[in-house]
Amino acid sequence: MKVYDGQGETESEIKSEQIKVGIAEYDVTKNGAVLTTSGLGSCIGVALYDDTAPVSGLVHVMLPSADDMEDGNSAKFADTGVETLIEELEATGGDRENMVAKIAGGSDMLDFSESGSGIGQRNVEQVKETLEAYDIPIVGEDVGGNHGRSIKLKSSTGDLVVKSANKESTVL
C-alpha cells in the first residue's frame, strides 16, 4: 500500500494520476488521484472519502470474513479489508466521523442456488455490517445482480463512476 501525498508534483500531474487497485488490495490518496479497480463480480469495491482531510481510499475485497484467514492479507476479506482501509485513512489524516462510503459489486454471477445467499450477497452484507459498526454511512451503492463492474473513485470529488457490462455508467 502506498499513500500518495502529491508532494513535488504539479496540479496537472496530480489530476491525471490513476492508481490501479488489484484484487485483494487497497490504496489511499491525499492528492486527488483517481483510484480504479475492475473485475468486480462477487467481489466488492469499497470507496471511502473524507472531504475535510481530504483523503480517500479504495479496497477490492473478495470474500466476506477473515475467520479462517491463512494468508494474512486483510484486504482480501470484507470485514478486515474495510477495517484496514479505515485505519489507513485515519493514519493519513482522515477522521472516521467525516467519512462516507460508496460500494459496488457483489454480483452472484455464478450462483445457481435457490437460496440467493452466494458469495456476492454475503460480501455485501459483511461490508454493510462492518461500515455500520464504524458508523460510516453508505451514501451510494450499485450492488447485486448478475453482471460484472469496474469502478473509478475520483478522489478530488468523492464521485464513484461505475461501469457495468449490462448498462451505462453511473456516478454515485
UniProtKB/TrEMBL annotation:
Top-level taxon in the UniProt lineage: Archaea
* Annotated organism of origin: Halapricum hydrolyticum
Q: Could you tell me the keywords of this UniProt record?
A: Chemotaxis, Hydrolase
- Pfam families per the record? CheD
One GO term under biological process is: chemotaxis
The catalytic activity of this protein is classed by the Enzyme Commission as: 3.5.1.44
Q: Which family does it belong to?
A: Belongs to the CheD family.
| Root EC class | hydrolase
What lineage is this protein's organism placed in?
Archaea, Methanobacteriati, Methanobacteriota, Stenosarchaea group, Halobacteria
HAMAP family named among the record's database cross-references? CheD
This enzyme catalyses: L-glutaminyl-[protein] + H2O = L-glutamyl-[protein] + NH4(+)
Q: Does the keyword Transferase apply?
A: no
Tell me, what does this protein do in biology? Answer: Probably deamidates glutamine residues to glutamate on methyl-accepting chemotaxis receptors (MCPs), playing an important role in chemotaxis.
Q: Which GO terms describe its molecular function?
A: protein-glutamine glutaminase activity
Protein known as: Probable chemoreceptor glutamine deamidase CheD
Q: Does the keyword RNA-binding apply?
A: no
